[in-house]
Structure formats: structure tokens, C-alpha cells
């Protein structure tokens, strides 16, 4: 079982890179380091993230830009070189904060990683796009591509298919490969995440959005609320050492997300300029036309979280794993 969990974790972490990547999702990143804050009297926390993440980290960087973290701590922002490195970091407990994919963190927790969800900050990431139809039911019997292999969107799509007349033949592709196939017209329909959606739509006038996967799932099944796709996690030991500071960080991120939500696409202005070489400001603005800028406390979405995990990994997230997952959500 441990071998199966590890393989699923690897896929999930790769998915996180794909979600946050679009153009460069499956290419190694240079491992750049950026420093925010220089107060020698404050602790310096290590944040591991991707330079291509949009909504998962936008509220945090808005808080940095507005000076909300002054007096709390300095940040050393480290970009992982590849998905395998991120996996190793989470499992080893290296770093204080991680930005990544919810089910990847949850699977790591099953292997006793000291990871706790601090904020859910990404929703509505997956879309079905097509150059052939704009109707979900028209996909019945068709081959539909998706990226990457192991995408949790597949679990949601399978449930949707069970409740509707559309039965899909799903085929996985690597991100860059699928991007080229979609733009060349060799692949007509696909399930992909933002900001790859915005990239494809900006380059192909033939591609249209059929539906957002999470919204379609909720409508089809009558599931209330939102599906917490990604967010910010904290190292358990860091949270134990600085409980008040971590609590303040959580509050700051949530407050800033409310501000950004009102700004719409203009919130792209808070995206760090030093990340521009990973994803252009233009694509960030386009993705914000669809992405929901929202940061929520995990305990407020606890029911949605475990419903989601149970759907995409029913063999792992059940009553048998409840004793391990009971502390997956950080609580002060």
C-alpha cells in the first residue's frame, strides 16, 4: 500500500506543477531564491512554491506588497527545481510553508509528513475545452485528452459520467505535448487546468469552454460548496514554534483575498514581477477572468475537503485513514 501511496503522491505533486505551470509545467525550474523582508530581529521562514502559481499564492504576495508581514517574519522564497524535489521536501518536512495541491499534501500526510493545511486558496481550476462542441452530452463515446496523468479532475469526471449520459474515453498526455496537439488541431477536446486554459484560448479561436469541471460536478451531484483544489500548507513544527504568527498569517491571507476578489483581473498587478519569466502578466490577467480569488480556512471547508479526497482516492481516504488525517487541518 505504501508503494501505491508514494506513486500517487508523485503524480499529485506533478499535477500541482501542471496546474501552476501552463507553458512550462513539465520543465525543470531553476531553483531561484527570492528574499522578502530583511529585519534581523525576525525569524526567516522558508516558502517553497512555483513561479507559475496564480491564485494559490496571489493573496500572500499581495500581503507582502502591502507590508502586512512586517513585524511577523522575513520570507525566503525558494522555487522547486522539479516535482520530485517538491515531493521530497514535503515528505522530509523541509521548509516552513509550501504552496501546492491539496490531494498531494493529503497523500503526503498519510505517510506521516508534518504537513498541515493552513489556507485553501484555489478553486475552479479545471475546464473542459473543445473545438467540436459546447455541449457536455455531445461528448458521449468520444476520446477526451487530459493532463497530467493522475489528474483529480478524472475522478470528478467519472462521477459526472455516472450521473449523466456522457461516457468519455479519457487519455492522458504530458502538458507540453497536449498544448501542441490542441493548438495544431490534432486533439479536439481536453480537460486542462488554468492557466493552461487561458494560454490555449489566447492562441486558438476555435477552442471553446464546455464547462468548469468542479462546477459541473457540484451541479450534477448536488454537492454544496466549493472543492478545495490547492492551497498553502504549514510545517507542523513551524506552527508549533510560532502559533500566534501563523494564525496572523492565515488571517492576513484571507483578508487580502477578499480585497483581491473585488479587483478582478486587476489583482494580477500583485503578481511578483520576478515571476514574470515563468508566466507572463498577460496570461495571469486572462486566467483571473475565470479563476476564483478566494482564501478560506480549511476548517470551514472540512466537509468539502474529505468528500473531495474520498472521491478521487476512495481506497485511501476512508474510515481506516481517519485517525491519520484528523490533524491534517491546522487549528490554533
Key descriptive features of the protein:
332 residues; alpha/beta; D-Maltodextrin-Binding Protein, domain 2; 6-stranded mixed beta sheet; 5-stranded mixed beta sheet; globular
Detailed description of the structure:
- The protein is of the alpha/beta class and 332 residues long.
- The chain folds into two domains: 222 residues, D-Maltodextrin-Binding Protein, domain 2 (3-Layer(aba) Sandwich); 96 residues, Periplasmic binding protein-like II (D-Maltodextrin-Binding Protein, domain 2, 3-Layer(aba) Sandwich), CATH 3.40.190.
- 42% of the residues lie in helices and 17% in strands.
- It has 13 helices and eleven strands.
- The strands form two sheets. Strands 1-3-2-4-11-5 form a six-stranded mixed beta sheet, sandwiched between helices. A five-stranded mixed beta sheet has the order 8-7-9-6-10.
- It is globular, with a radius of gyration of 19 Å.
- About 6% of the residues have low confidence.
Any guess at the CATH architecture of the largest domain? Answer: 3-Layer(aba) Sandwich
Order of helices and strands: HEEHEHEHEEEHEHEHEHEHHHHH
Number of domains: 2
Distance between the termini: 32 Å
- Overall pLDDT confidence: 88
Within the largest sheet, what's the order of strands?
A: 1-3-2-4-11-5
Please report the number of helical segments. 13
In terms of structural class, how would the helical and strand content be classed? alpha/beta
Which fold name is given in CATH as the topology of the largest domain? D-Maltodextrin-Binding Protein, domain 2
Query: What portion of residues belong to β-strands?
Result: 15-25%
Number of strands: 11
- Given as residue ranges, the uncertain stretches (5+ residues, pLDDT < 50) are 10-28
Main sheet overview: 6 strands, mixed
Proportion of helical residues: 40-55%
Our Rg estimate from Cα atoms comes to 19 Å
3D shape: globular
Amino acid at each position: 500500500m505504501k508503494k501505491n501511496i508514494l506513486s500517487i503522491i508523485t503524480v499529485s505533486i506533478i499535477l500541482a506543477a501542471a496546474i501552476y505551470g501552463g507553458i512550462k509545467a513539465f520543465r525543470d525550474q531553476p531553483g531561484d531564491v527570492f528574499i522578502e523582508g530583511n529585519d534581523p530581529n525576525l525569524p526567516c521562514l522558508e516558502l517553497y512554491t512555483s513561479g507559475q502559481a496564480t491564485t494559490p499564492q496571489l493573496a500572500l504576495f499581495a500581503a507582502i506588497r502591502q507590508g502586512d508581514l512586517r513585524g511577523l517574519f522575513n520570507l525566503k522564497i525558494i522555487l522547486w527545481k522539479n516535482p520530485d524535489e517538491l515531493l521530497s521536501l514535503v515528505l522530509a518536512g523541509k521548509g516552513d510553508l509550501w504552496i501546492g495541491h491539496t490531494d498531494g499534501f493529503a497523500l503526503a500526510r498519510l505517510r506521516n509528513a508534518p504537513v498541515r493545511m493552513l489556507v485553501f486558496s484555489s478553486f475552479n481550476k479545471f475546464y473542459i475545452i473543445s473545438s467540436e462542441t459546447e455541449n457536455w452530452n455531445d461528448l458521449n463515446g468520444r476520446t477526451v485528452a487530459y493532463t497530467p496523468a493522475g489528474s483529480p479532475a478524472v475522478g470528478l469526471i467519472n462521477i459526472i459520467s455516472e450521473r449523466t449520459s456522457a461516457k468519455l474515453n479519457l487519455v492522458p498526455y504530458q502538458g507540453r505535448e497536449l498544448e501542441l496537439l490542441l493548438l495544431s488541431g490534432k486533439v479536439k477536446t481536453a480537460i486542462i487546468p488554468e492557466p493552461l486554459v487561458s494560454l490555449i484560448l489566447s492562441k486558438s479561436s476555435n477552442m471553446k469552454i464546455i464547462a468548469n469541471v468542479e462546477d459541473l460536478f457540484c451541479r450534477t451531484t448536488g454537492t454544496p460548496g466549493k472543492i478545495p483544489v490547492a492551497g498553502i500548507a504549514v510545517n507542523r513544527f513551524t506552527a508549533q514554534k510560532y502559533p500566534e504568527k501563523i494564525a496572523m498569517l492565515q488571517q492576513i491571507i484571507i483578508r487580502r483575498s477578499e480585497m483581491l476578489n473585488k479587483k478582478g483581473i486587476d489583482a494580477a498587478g500583485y503578481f511578483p514581477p520576478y515571476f514574470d519569466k515563468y508566466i507572463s502578466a498577460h496570461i495571469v490577467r486572462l486566467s483571473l477572468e475565470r479563476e476564483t480569488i478566494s482564501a478560506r480556512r480549511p476548517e470551514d471547508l472540512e466537509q468539502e475537503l474529505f468528500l473531495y479526497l474520498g472521491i478521487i482516492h476512495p481506497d485511501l481516504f476512508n474510515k481506516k485513514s481517519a485517525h491519520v488525517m484528523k490533524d491534517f487541518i491546522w487549528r490554533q
